[in-house]
Amino acid sequence: MKTAQASTLLFAFWLILTGSLGLLDLALGVVVSLFLGAWAARFLWPADAPALTPRQAGRFLLYIPRLLTSVVMAALQVAEVVLDPRMPVDPVVISHRTSFTRDISRVAYANSITLTPGTLAVDIDSDTFYVHCLAEHFATDIATGDLERRVLRVFEE
Amino acid sequence: MISAVDIRNAVTVVLAAVGALFFLIGTIGLVRLPDFYARTHAATKCDTVGAGSLLLALAVFNGVDVSTLKIIALAGLVLLSSPTIGHALARAAHRTGVAPWQARKGRTS
């Protein structure tokens, strides 16, 4: 089962990379994907592979455009700080305790922190996240738990 | 008369210019910001958008094609790896005891 998943993913990647539907290319792709898939399923796959219910997958897809927008906002925010002659930075490191139960939520949360304006995920100590903020007001979303609730809604409901 | 090719070229130029601008801003940030952590902000965020915008420009210029799929896959990779690398850098600094710079002294962080 795991092998089939890994192989399908690898074969899709192969199709994109070769960009060819020739018989030889396809056959070679199938063979290589099966070998690599079997290997990956055995050694690379985590013990609890992140399985999403259809509803969670849907929410995840809706979460992506939101994340893309916030990346652009984050870059603009950094640009504003950097290009300001006074350079108004007053960095703080805050810690925030979370109640995630799955690793995939922790990964998504850390990534979301780093991609939102002015904040950077620094370290995780069991359930406590340490976040570096360029200025204190960037920390609002994290301190109030808004960001955490959004991630919880995607992966843990 | 403006043809579809003209429009495509214009969009390409604008996207590529925006990408280059973000790379420039990220680099200025790398020089100006006070410490390692703040510089990591500039390096990861501005470069993500810069690279994304440049790749998007290439995709538009290339049109609907298999190579465009490759470019989109690359953009996805950048979007995934950039925050991961930023986090890995920051965590390594944190664990080896690099203290964050503070504007005001005597605050508990």
Largest sheet geometry of chain B? none
The number of helical runs of chain A is 6
Oligomer: heterodimer
Q: Detail the poorly predicted runs of chain A.
A: none
Approximate strand percentage of chain A? 5-15%
User: How many separate domains of chain A?
Assistant: 2
The succession of helices and strands of chain B, N to C, reads HHH
How are the strands of the biggest sheet of chain A laid out side by side?
1-3-2
Account of the 3D structure:
The complex is a heterodimer of chains A (157) and B (109). By secondary structure, chain A is an alpha+beta fold. In chain A, strands 1-3-2 form a 3-stranded antiparallel sheet. The two termini of chain A are 25 Å apart. Chain A has 2 domains: 2-43; 54-155, no CATH class. In chain A, a hairpin with a 2-residue loop joins strand 2 and strand 3 (128-133). Chain A has helices at residues 2-18, 23-43, 54-83, 103-115, 140-143, 146-155; strands at residues 92-97, 119-125, 128-133. Chain B has 109 residues and is mostly helical. Chain B contains 3 helices and no strands. The termini of chain B are far apart. The mean pLDDT of chain B is 87. Chains A and B meet through helix 1, helix 3, strand 1, helix 4 and strand 2 of A and helix 1, helix 2 and helix 3 of B.
Labels describing this entry:
heterodimer, A: 157 residues, alpha+beta, three-stranded antiparallel sheet, 3 strands, 61% helix, 12% strand, B: 109 residues, mainly alpha, 3 helices
